[in-house]
Inverse folding.
């Protein structure tokens, strides 16, 4: 349970006052202190009370109160009816963590990764995954931004995780929830520099510098670069002879899995002027190169040169202003994403890194030689307004538009004509919400509706009954979803929450329009739909030397019309609405601190995903009706213990983290002899972090050991993940 | 593929009888004739079962299960709690008493055999670079397997030679079936092999000519082609000749591994479909037909031509396989009105009937009592006690049918609790 759940109650401030403010700038990485004693906040809070203007709080007499009330928006969020978890990255910034590692230690989330740093991953949130989950960066949707865009924890202040029910302010077609990555407030002077070195020749450097140029003007530069050879041991690789006969298994190091990435973001503008709370311009450029060791589903095919390159450039502008009884928020973004897949070597590699030139120069490593570039242009815009009807109620309206134009080109394989003519899609979401408080503010009600508009055009050389034709197809359809989020503060220790949304995930261009080559268009394709429900409760207890918090959430997802590719005519296929899945689950977390120096965090999730399709992909009777969905984790848990010790003016903190995922089957559980079934084995890993903070908290040095018992771990069938690894990280914060 | 098993069993039983007390440490030089009547005139005695079958319970890309049980006539066939799991979609190909399972998913072919305890068990496996899509059996001792990259580029094919006894690849060579490259994609053609048949020291490879742009177009659909190689095939081999016959379309149908069959006397028969519904583009103007290459010859027999459409009122051969005595079991696609490209493979078009073809007499006999059905893929059939077992899938359900080849009749058997059975195998005899 890394996320910190806040109560809106007075208990929090009780808790806060218990914290000794001996080291104002020292971040105690445990407890809630990470949030409350955030150094950025504390430093700037006293200087700039103005930033809290919108919280309508005037009492800033004590630093504690500022700290707490300064996060009033956070408080409001957590006490709203939305099932939202807040992960504060501060606790992780001193050690070697990236965002997916932070996310996967939260209840209800699994992140399945195909390897080490930079490898493909699939995040599932309460059973829904992939593009059913939408990501946002400071509220701006990140879909289609490509792999180059990655955010080290050091550039991020917190992560909001909306489970199943998403407020209209995040305007997108999120079927299973949304994850919003939030950077620090703009009007704080801060410098955060870090360097990490570790196993597999891993280097990571991050820099975050933010400054007030004069009163209103700010400049922020954040940059990061990382590299890893990812040359970790694979324990179960087939040993083969020259003909391919499998002789046994062997242990080899990965040799073509190097990953390098860099990103620079510069943001500048004004804050807290009469005309804008924020008006800013932001430029981002990111690039990466990712060598692939093998195809995503098999380690029997080995690559030595195959790789992808990505270049992403984004330009965005943002405007925010709160007036006395209304506020507005708007952004514009445009960007280009180029991703090239290189399979240009006619070589046949083995796991020892040896290769033979293929006799056939037309062949690459995977298929025909290819250098395929997909070029996406994206344009996004959003405008939202909130009008306060009274102190206790407001109404808000949001419009978000998302335009994508895609073009593809293969410089080596003339037969690959996918996206040779440009295609575009436009998705718009209009949201309307009413938010109200009643019963002396103990009851919080949010009701909302979202209207989805989806239009698009594909141009393709399409084979219609074997005649090549230039086909232009249009799509145009609408859907309306709705939902509600309720919370009730029964007493200061006890909060109840319930939320529901009928939501959609609109098809992607390729799904509805085909590729023009083998994928036939399906004009009748519907969006994926889901009824998502959450019911949760949160309890807090405290005594003189302890604080504990227990939260539990029951979730239900009734999802249908999942979009699958069905190759129904041998080489031709089309996307169809097929699966209906019902998910019921429970996630619980417990958090305990005592004597301010020790903490225990525990969370566990059990989820049951059942196939509710009566018919299978061919339209035949589905013999797996009501069976558990295969290849999905259903039981997982995390434990994190911490202890910190004051050594003179310095601080030593120790963390122990254990993660568990129960074994699950690759295919339908009931089919086949249990001893002959393919499965993903149980995962049990232990990590240690030792952090030492000195010079009044300006400097941090940490040593991390991941997977200390060197367990063989797999997220995906037969695709092993790294074994034991060590990382040393140095961080400077000012 | 007619299995030589019945024949070898016959020989085995003869020699066993002949040897009499062969178990004694000192062989008796005197051969005592058996008191029983000569077994040669009897039907070969093969105890039906245990049966091994490959069942697919769920959709196209999902796992398959290799199940072995003593009987397939008592209760519904299912993979519920039984069977060895096979990842994804697989080809199944028996050679002697070894079954090869070759998939797209994991670049791997696995072999199965009955172990000393009498259980079907994994023998070994081998990996490959491109999916193997065409198979052949040489004398029930050797598997031949070929890849055929499908995106139209001018690549050579790879031929694997595998020892069925050990499951090990013993040779792997590059070879070219047909390759015509003008430098402009769309103008040239490449070969898609539709069978691998060895007769004496020759390998016959019928093939379709596909466009070199990757559209699966068949620009020269109106001619039957067979590439003939010296066998064993050496690395870098080219055909010693390519024979053609313009009385029929390109030989074979995608996914069928028995588009050319060898009968007892060494004659080779080929099937041509040529229809849009079987993936031809443009469709052939030639009717669906069977051609013959006589034993000892490397040319089509100009005097043999079997017009399937005339014999079946417009039906087209979708699959056939040899069942002995110059007969083939076959599926004929009727009702061509509704066709769309590749539609004969689609689950929703129930247009196939089961027939027995007498290749020499040129007759087609409908197998009685088998309803119209749909079958996308059938692995080579085995004859067990004069019977062939087939999976018959209709809109309502899937059932096993026991086909009596001699009488062209069938008995409806138990229900298949799943989508399809890709093949029934006798790995015990």
């Amino acid at each position: 349970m890394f996320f910190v759940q806040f109560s809106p109650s007075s208990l929090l401030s009780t808790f806060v006052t218990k914290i000794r403010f001996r080291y104002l700038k020292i971040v105690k990485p445990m407890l809630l202190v990470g949030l409350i004693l955030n150094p950025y906040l504390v430093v700037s809070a006293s200087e700039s009370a103005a930033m809290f203007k919108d919280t309508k709080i005037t009492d800033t007499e004590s630093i504690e109160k500022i700290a707490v009330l300064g996060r009033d928006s956070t408080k409001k969020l957590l006490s709203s009816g939305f099932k939202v978890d807040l992960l504060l990255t501060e606790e992780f910034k001193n050690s070697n963590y990236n965002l997916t590692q932070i996310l996967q230690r939260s209840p209800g989330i699994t992140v399945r990764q195909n390897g080490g740093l930079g490898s493909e991953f699939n995040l599932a949130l309460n059973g829904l995954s992939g593009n059913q989950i939408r990501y946002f960066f400071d509220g701006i949707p990140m879909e289609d931004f490509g792999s180059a865009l990655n955010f080290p924890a050091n550039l991020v202040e917190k992560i909001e995780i909306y489970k199943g029910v998403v407020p209209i302010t995040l305007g997108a077609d999120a079927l299973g929830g949304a994850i919003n990555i939030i950077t620090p407030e703009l009007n704080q002077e801060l410098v955060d520099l870090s360097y990490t070195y570790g196993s597999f020749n891993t280097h990571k450097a991050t820099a975050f510098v933010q400054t007030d140029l004069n009163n209103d003007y700010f400049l922020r530069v954040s940059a990061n670069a990382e590299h890893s050879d990812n040359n970790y041991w694979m324990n179960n690789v087939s040993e083969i002879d020259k003909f391919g006969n499998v002789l046994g298994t062997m242990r080899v190091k990965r040799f073509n899995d190097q990953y390098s990435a860099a990103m620079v973001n510069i943001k500048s503008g004004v804050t807290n002027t009469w005309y804008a709370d924020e008006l800013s311009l932001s430029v981002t450029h990111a690039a990466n190169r990712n060598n692939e060791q093998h195809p995503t589903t098999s380690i029997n095919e080995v690559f030595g040169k195959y790789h992808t390159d990505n270049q992403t450039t984004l330009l965005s502008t943002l405007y925010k202003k709160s007036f006395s009884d209304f506020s507005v928020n708007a952004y514009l973004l445009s960007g280009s994403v180029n991703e090239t897949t290189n399979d240009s070597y006619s070589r046949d590699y083995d796991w020892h890194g040896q290769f033979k030139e293929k006799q056939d120069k037309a062949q690459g490593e995977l298929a025909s030689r290819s250098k395929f570039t997909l070029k996406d242009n994206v344009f996004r815009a959003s405008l939202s307004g909130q009008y306060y009807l009274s102190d206790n109620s407001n109404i808000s309206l949001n419009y978000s538009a998302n335009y994508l134009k895609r073009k593809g080109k293969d410089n080596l394989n003339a037969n690959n004509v996918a996206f040779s003519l440009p295609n575009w899609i436009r998705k718009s979401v209009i949201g309307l919400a009413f938010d109200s408080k009643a019963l002396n503010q103990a009851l919080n009600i949010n009701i909302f509706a979202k209207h989805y508009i989806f239009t698009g055009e594909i141009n393709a050389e399409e084979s219609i009954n074997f005649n090549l034709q230039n086909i232009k197809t249009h799509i145009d359809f609408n859907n309306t979803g709705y939902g509600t989020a309720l919370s009730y503060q029964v007493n200061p220790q006890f909060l109840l929450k319930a939320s529901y949304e009928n939501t959609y995930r609109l098809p992607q261009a390729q799904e509805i329009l085909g590729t023009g080559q083998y994928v036939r268009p399906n004009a009748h394709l519907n969006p994926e739909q889901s009824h998502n429900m959450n019911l949760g409760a949160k309890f807090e207890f405290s005594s003189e030397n302890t604080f504990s918090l227990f939260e539990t959430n029951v979730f239900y997802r009734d999802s249908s019309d999942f979009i699958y590719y069905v190759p129904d005519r041998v080489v031709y296929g089309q996307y169809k609405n097929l699966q209906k899945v019902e998910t019921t689950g429970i996630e619980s977390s417990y958090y305990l601190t005592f004597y301010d120096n020790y903490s225990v965090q525990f969370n566990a999730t059990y989820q049951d995903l059942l196939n509710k399709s009566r018919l299978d992909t061919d339209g035949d009777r589905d013999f797996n009706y009501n069976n558990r969905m295969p290849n999905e984790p259903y039981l997982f848990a995390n434990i994190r213990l911490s202890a910190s010790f004051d050594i003179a003016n310095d601080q030593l903190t120790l963390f122990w983290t254990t993660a568990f995922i129960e074994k699950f089957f690759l295919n339908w559980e009931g089919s086949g002899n249990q001893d002959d079934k393919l499965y993903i084995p149980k995962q049990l890993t232990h990590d240690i972090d030792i952090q030492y903070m000195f010079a009044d908290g300006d400097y941090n040095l940490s040593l991390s050991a991941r997977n200390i018992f060197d367990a063989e771990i797999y997220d995906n069938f037969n695709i092993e993940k790294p074994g034991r690894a060590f990382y040393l990280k140095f961080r400077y914060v000012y | 593929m007619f299995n030589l098993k019945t024949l070898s069993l016959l020989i085995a039983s003869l020699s066993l009888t002949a040897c009499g007390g062969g178990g004694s440490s000192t062989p008796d030089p005197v051969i005592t004739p058996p008191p029983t009547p000569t077994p040669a005139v009897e039907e070969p005695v093969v105890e039906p079962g245990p049966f091994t079958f490959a069942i697919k319970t769920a959709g196209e890309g999902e796992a398959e299960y290799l199940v072995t049980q003593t009987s397939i006539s008592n209760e519904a066939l299912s993979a519920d709690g039984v069977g060895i799991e096979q990842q994804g979609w697989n080809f199944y190909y028996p050679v002697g008493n070894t079954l090869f399972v070759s998939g797209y998913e994991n670049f791997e072919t696995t072999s199965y055999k009955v172990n000393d305890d009498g259980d079907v068990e994994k023998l070994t496996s081998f990996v490959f670079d491109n999916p193997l899509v065409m198979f052949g059996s040489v004398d029930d001792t050797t598997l031949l397997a070929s890849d055929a990259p499908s995106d139209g580029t001018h690549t050579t094919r790879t031929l694997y030679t595998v020892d069925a006894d050990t499951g090990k690849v013993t040779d792997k060579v590059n070879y070219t079936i047909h390759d015509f490259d003008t430098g402009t994609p769309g103008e040239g053609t490449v070969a898609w092999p539709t069978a691998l048949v060895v007769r004496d020291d020759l390998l016959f490879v019928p093939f379709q000519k596909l466009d070199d742009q990757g559209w699966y177009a068949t620009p020269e659909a109106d001619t039957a082609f067979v590439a003939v190689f010296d066998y064993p095939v050496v690395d870098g081999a080219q055909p010693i000749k390519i024979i053609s016959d313009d009385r029929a379309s390109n030989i074979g149908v995608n996914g069928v591994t028995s588009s050319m069959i060898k009968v007892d006397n060494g004659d080779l028969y080929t099937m041509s479909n040529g229809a849009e519904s079987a993936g031809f583009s443009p469709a052939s103007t030639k009717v669906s037909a069977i051609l013959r290459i006589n034993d000892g010859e490397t040319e089509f027999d100009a005097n043999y031509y079997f017009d399937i459409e005339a014999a079946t009122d417009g039906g087209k051969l979708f699959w056939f396989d040899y069942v002995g005595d110059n007969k083939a079991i076959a599926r004929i696609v009727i009702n061509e009105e509704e066709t769309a490209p590749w539609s004969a493979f689609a689950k929703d078009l129930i247009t196939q009937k089961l027939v027995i073809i007498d290749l020499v007499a040129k007759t087609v006999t409908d197998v009685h009592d088998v309803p119209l059905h749909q079958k996308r893929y059938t692995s080579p059939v085995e004859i067990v006690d004069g019977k062939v077992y087939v999976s018959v899938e209709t809109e309502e359900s899937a059932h096993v049918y026991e086909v009596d080849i001699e009488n062209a009749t069938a008995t409806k058997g138990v229900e298949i609790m799943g989508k399809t059975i890709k093949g029934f195998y006798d790995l015990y005899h």
In short: DSSP finds two helices and 29 strands in chain B.
